Amino acid sequence: MAPVILRVPEGLLFSQLRLQTFIAVPGCIGAAATDRRGTMIKVVRAKLHCLRVTDANLNYQGSITLDPEHCETVGIYPLEFVEIWNKNSGARISTYVIYGERGSRCCVLNGSAARSCQPGDEVIIAASWYCQPTELAALQPRVLTFHADNSIDRTLTYDVTALDGGRFDFAIREGAFLEPEPA
Fold first, then answer.
1. What CATH number is associated with residue 101?
2. Strand, coil or helix: what is 133?
3. Is pLDDT at 22 greater than 70 in this prediction?
């Protein structure tokens, strides 16, 4: 593969990347990549934990339909690819998000994704991004947990602290951040 050069707004220059997939998004690298400074790792950016599937629509083109209020609270965008892990069946799939009706508490698997879940199944939906390990402490991903009716139970953040010697500490912090994620 020929070398690739990508300039990001912070002025960093990444050259000779080894890519599996390449997505150009301002301010981030959407690829599994390495550079001379270190490894890019895939990390959780936002998560909806134990959301219940409200419908499965096989005759739709694809995707997962979610309540925009839930998505905006943690920072999941329309058309963003997410990973979905079904706690009931163990199925793991990837698809993109479309926003449904605001306030509906919906979680609808569409198209082929509908085969992986049944209404009532508990799923975990995670959005991710790529960063260097040195950037972990600045992330603080937002997480929502849910009651059986898909109302919000708890608001959490994942907190990584950089320690000496390249080590890290991890904590789950409970907090009320119910305003939408800043853009």
1. 2.40.40.20
2. helix
3. no
DSSP 8-state assignment for residue 96: E
Q: What is the pTM of this model?
A: 0.77
- Let me know whether 176 and 146 are in one domain: yes
**Does 23 share its domain with 106?**
no
Active-site residue numbers? 63, 96
In this structure, what token pair is assigned to residue 124? 């975990």
Residue, of 131 and 13, whose pLDDT is higher? 131
Helix or strand or coil: residue 125?
Answer: strand
**What's the average model confidence in pLDDT over 76-85?**
98
- Write the burial class of residue 107 (CB in 10 Å: 0-12 exposed, 13-18 middle, 19+ buried): buried
For residues 63 and 4, membership in a common domain is answered with: no
In terms of Cβ atoms closer than 10 Å to its own Cβ (0-12, 13-18, 19+), residue 181 is: middle
Q: How many domains does the chain fold into?
A: 2
pLDDT at 67: 98
What pLDDT score does 176 carry?
A: 62
